[in-house]
Amino acid sequence: MPERVEALAPTRIDLAGGTIDLWPLFLLHDDPVTVNAAIDLYARATIESTRDGSIELVSADRDRRARYASAAQLRASLSQAPPELEFPTRLAAHFLGRAGPGPVSCLIRTDCRAPAGSGLGGSSALGIALVSALDRYTSRGLPTESLLALTRSIETQVLRIPTGEQDYHPALHGGVLALHYTVEGTRVERLAVDVESLLERTVLVFTGVSRSSGISNWDMLKRHLDGDGDVRRALDSIIGATHDMRLALLRADWDAAGEALGREWEARKKMSPTVTNDVIDRLIEEARGSGAIAGKVCGAGGGGCVVLWARAGKRAAVAESAGRRGAEVLDFHFVTDGVSVRES
């Protein structure tokens, strides 16, 4: 085994089409699609070989740690893992329990620059980073599709509700993506977008209120499966707006892209009362008064981050308006590369 492995995976901004990536929702609508973009608020996972025979997990951003005397004890302790460490603990147990003869001794450290509960897919990006690092550390050599499926399955075990898959693709591939969900699997389309021009139109702010994607997603999924016609129609509208977003980005029609984002948000608010709140509504409204075309929550909603779409030359004014509402303006860039792994 290598002495040290480090993996970095980008998080993402979902520009349109979230929620439709939940199984089986995408099977119940025509031509479902999500558009998202990788950003440099990275999730990081490092594995360092140690000599004391133990396995230690440290979450730097959540300030939690746990130590196990062996891989066997790690596997036996999954149900007692601290909530902040359950996901990396389960991933580590899956790989290190198959690491071959001899004891495994290592320190696993994780960290994510995206705020916890931000709606930027930080948990899934961290999963991709750690799976990629563990795959290299144990010399498994799994293909990309298997890394995604494994990460999604174990994250579902942690969340204990159905999970989507849009967050894993930017972490794996980077870039601006259109994810087309089909009965044969997800087709990943990399969109040719000038990311510097895209950056000039987008402002990312953290409301300061963490949210759980599971609450909103489960409410939307349950309403849909219970036959709520309003939710079905809202999802159809979201899919339509997402196709408009894809075309606008390909044409570099930035105002049309902003309008598509606004239509997506208006449709999303009809899906569940958990999607928005007064803080989010007022933040977006003030931003529009300062030069934003529209805004929407990132992820499932209810808090976390909001992406604001600025008119030409208005990015700074839109960011200032968000600051006046008490939101934290996040410094970020779009990135074209997905997860990277290096060893030493």
Structure in words:
It contains 11 helices and 12 strands. The protein folds into 2 domains: 4-190 and 335-343, Ribosomal Protein S5, domain 2 (2-Layer Sandwich), CATH 3.30.230.10; 195-329, 2-Layer Sandwich (Alpha-Beta Plaits). The model has no long low-confidence stretch (mean pLDDT 93). The strands form 2 sheets. Strands 1, 2, 3, 4, 5, 6, 7 and 12 form an 8-stranded mixed beta sheet that branches. It is globular. The protein is α+β, with helices and mostly antiparallel strands and 344 residues long.
Topology of this structure?
Elements: E1 4-16, E2 33-49, E3 55-59, E4 64-68, H1 71-76, H2 86-96, E5 106-112, H3 122-137, H4 144-159, H5 168-173, E6 176-182, E7 185-190, H6 195-201, E8 202-206, H7 213-225, H8 229-250, H9 254-268, H10 278-289, E9 292-297, E10 305-310, H11 315-324, E11 328-329, E12 340-343
Parallel strand pairs: 3-5
Antiparallel strand pairs: 1-2, 1-12, 2-5, 2-6, 3-4, 6-7, 8-10, 8-11, 9-10
Number of domains: 2
| Helix content percent band | 25-40%
Distance between the terminal alpha carbons, to the nearest Å?
A: 10 Å
CA radius of gyration is 20 Å
CATH topology of the largest domain: the name is Ribosomal Protein S5, domain 2
